[in-house]
Every structure is written in structure tokens, then in C-alpha cells.
Amino acid sequence: QVQLVESGGGLVQAGGSLRLSCEASGSRLGINVMGWYRQVAGKQRELAARLSNGGTPNYADSVKGRFTISRDNAKNTVYLQMNSLKPEDSGIYYCNVVTWRDYWGKGTLVTVAS
Prior knowledge:
- This protein is mostly beta strands.
- Helices cover about 0% and strands about 55% of the residues.
- The protein is globular and about 45 Å long.
């Protein structure tokens, strides 16, 4: 079983920055992919960014050049640095970890004010 603890959401003005963190814990983690998805009210959850072991990051087109995903494997933690935030980036951001199955965090709210 994997537990995920997210942090770093909040309210920011357009053009500002936030850094999300997600720490995974549990026994025999065997993590392959760590990533972030986001969901806006009334829409489906969508990928923001993800990073597999030894792989290159995948980003949604809407966040390329503004968001950066990184991992600290020693800490089982994934980060999402979000710069030049826009109001349309507002939503609930969910941490996702893939071992032999998917695990999801509870989500952290990001609000970008115009």
C-alpha cells in the first residue's frame, strides 16, 4: 500500500509561481511513474506532467515551458514547479504514483487570480 501526501497548493496572482510536492510512503514501493494531474470543475481529470524512472518528462501542451516536474527518488517525492501561472491553471491537482497499480493523492487546490 502506498500513501501520498501532497502540499503546496494555494492562492496566487496570475503570473506567479507555486511549487507542489508529493511524498510517497509505504513498504516495497517499487515506484515507476510519478506525476501530477489536474481537474477543473465540470471537466475530466487531465495530465499536467509525469516522469517515469530514467525517462524524460511528459507535459500537457498547455503547461509546456511553464511547469517543471522533478523527482527525488531517495525521498520518494515528486515536485511540480509552476511558473507564469494563468487563471486557467486553477483546479485541484492530484499526485499520481504508479507501481503495479495506480495510487492517487487527495488533491491540493490551486487558485490563480486574474
